[in-house]
Amino acid sequence: MSNETPTNQPAATLRDGGIKATIWRNASKNGDFFSVQFARTYMDDGGQYHDTDSFRNGEVLRLARLAQQAYDVIADLRQQDTA
Questions:
Q1: Containing domain of residue 51, as a range?
Q2: Most buried of the four, 22, 24, 25, 42, by CB within 10 Å?
Q3: pLDDT in tens, 22-38
C-alpha cells in the first residue's frame, strides 16, 4: 500500500471547534512540500455552513495552538516519507 495521498485530498485536517487546519501535500520538481490552510467554519442565517479566513480575537490563541499541532503533524508526515 502506498503512502501517497491523492492530489485532491488533504494529507490531514485538524480541528479545534469551528477552527480547522487543512494540511496539503504539494509535489514539485524538488520533492514534496506541505502547506497549511486555516479556516473558521460558521453557519449563516439560512442554516448553510461556510468557511472564512477571518478569526475573532478570542480565537487567535486557539489558532496559534492549531498551527503548532499542524507543524507537528507535518514533521510526522515527513518522517513517514523517509521511513
A1: 12-82
A2: 25
A3: 999 999 999 899 999 99
